[in-house]
Amino acid sequence: MTARDAHRGESGGLPQDRKVTTHFLQRMKDRGEKICALTAYDHLMGKLLDEAGIDLILVGDSAAMTIQGRHTTVSVTMDQMIYHASVVSSAVERALVVGDMPFMSYHVNPDEALRNAGRMIQEALVEAVKLEGGEKVCPTIRRIVDAGIPVMGHLGLTPQSILKFGTYQVRAREEAEAEALRRDALALQDAGVFGLVIEKVPAALASEVSKLVKVPVIGIGAGAGCDGQILVSHDMLGLYTKFHPRFVRRYAELAETMRAAFGRYAEDVRSGDFPSQEESY
C-alpha cells in the first residue's frame, strides 16, 4: 500500500486519490491543509513522489546542479528543461506537475515567454509553469495566464539572479527589501499567479506574506508559517552533498548508501564472487 492509498477516505480532508489541480491547492490553503512539494527530474523519481502522495512536483531548473553538476541554475536550457519535464510528467498521475522556466526563457519579451511556456505545456505536458521575479515580470505573467497557462511565482532568493546577488544568504532581512517583497507578492497575485514559492527569507516575513495573499505560498527555507513546503529531492535524500543548507532536513543519506553498494559490487566482481552459480544461466 502506498502513502497515497493509506490516506484515501480520511474524513476532514481533501481526497488523496483525486487529481491535484490549481483549484485543489487553493482549497487546501482555504482549509488550512499543508501542501507538500518536492522536485523531480526523471521518470522514476516522478513516479515515486506521486506514489508517496506528494501534492506538487516541480521539475526545477535545479537540474543544472543536481543532474548536470553545474555550480548554478543559469546554464540549463529550455530544451533540457522540456526533456526533464516530459519524462517526469509521463510518470505522474495525481500530483500537479509544474515546469520551471529557465534563465532567459521569459526575459526577452512577453511573446517569447508565452511561446516557451506553451512549449512546456504542449511538448512536456506539464500543467503549469514557474518563473522568478516580482513586479517587473507581471506583464509577462499576465500574457501567459491570459493564454490559459497557470503560472507560479517565485520571490525571495531567486537562484537565476545569483550572479547578481553574489551570495546565497537570506534575503529581505532589511525592511526596505521586505516591503518590496510584500509589494511583489501582491503584484504577482494581481497578475494572476495561482501560487508563490518564497525562498530563504525570514520566517516571520514569509508567514506574513502567506496571510497577506489569497493564493498558496510554498516555502523553502522560509519557516513553518507558509501554506506548504518544498525541498530539492536530491537534498533531502542526501544525494546532493556539495553543501547542506540549514533549512534542508535530511530524510536519508543515499549518497553514502549508494557509494557503499557500488564499492561492494566492485569488490565482488574483482574477487570473482559475482556472479555466483545461482546468478548465472
What does this entry look like structurally?
- The protein is of the alpha/beta class.
- It folds into two domains: 3-250, TIM Barrel (Alpha-Beta Barrel); 254-281.
- 41% of the residues lie in helices and 13% in strands.
- The protein has twelve helices and eight strands.
- The protein has helices spanning 3-7, 22-30, 43-51, 63-66, 78-89, 110-122, 138-146, 162-165, 175-191, 203-212, 233-236, 254-271; strands at residues 35-39, 56-59, 96-100, 128-130, 151-156, 195-199, 217-220, 228-231.
- Helix 3 (43-51) links the parallel strand 1 and strand 2.
- The radius of gyration is 20 Å and the shape is globular.
- The relative contact order is 0.11.
- Residues 1-11 have low confidence and may be disordered.
Write a concise synopsis of the structure shown.
The protein has 281 residues and is an alpha/beta fold. 41% of the residues lie in helices and 13% in strands.
Keywords summarizing the entry:
2 domains, 13% strand, 8-stranded parallel β-barrel, 281 residues, TIM Barrel, alpha/beta
Summarize the helices and strands and which ones pair or pack:
Layout: H1 3-7, H2 22-30, E1 35-39, H3 43-51, E2 56-59, H4 63-66, H5 78-89, E3 96-100, H6 110-122, E4 128-130, H7 138-146, E5 151-156, H8 162-165, H9 175-191, E6 195-199, H10 203-212, E7 217-220, E8 228-231, H11 233-236, H12 254-271
Parallel strand pairs: 1-2, 1-8, 2-3, 3-4, 4-5, 5-6, 6-7, 7-8
